[in-house]
Amino acid sequence: MKLSREFANGFIIFLGIGIYFLILEYLGLADEFYLRVLNLFIVAFGVNRTIQMNYKDGIRGYNRHLISAITTSMIGALLSIATLLGYIYYRGGEAYLETLSKGFLFGGDTNIYYYCIGLLFESVASSIIISFCLMQWWKDKVEVINKVN
Q1: Structural domains counted in the chain
Q2: In whole angstroms, what separates CA 131 from the centre of its chain?
Q3: Is residue 148 part of a domain?
Q4: Out of 17, 48, 52, 131, which residue is the most buried by the measure of CB atoms under 10 Å away?
């Protein structure tokens, strides 16, 4: 398990999420919750790339792939949250946060650090769920491939 693979795909996740949310904000759709949920597909893309690369390189072991997948998604999440923290301060701090936190998990009245910690919890949960789902998909796919060969 190479950390560079996880970092590279985590960075792809970070770039994808960043560009996606900047486009949403430019279009005035950043407060639409259902559009914000679509970032899961960006995370799934990056995690899937990591698992696929691991299988192509002959890395075996369910746990190795799972740790690699979770590491990839968490790198993307941590980079995204750290950048969002800076972006919130750049856009006006607490005043800008008021526009973001309307559809947030904990309600509308929060501070910047609670907002980022809440996003971290959401990221950890979604990272684990996406990683487990993709691992199950790849596990079934690899079993079929191994039976054919």
Answers
A1: 1
A2: 10
A3: no
A4: 131
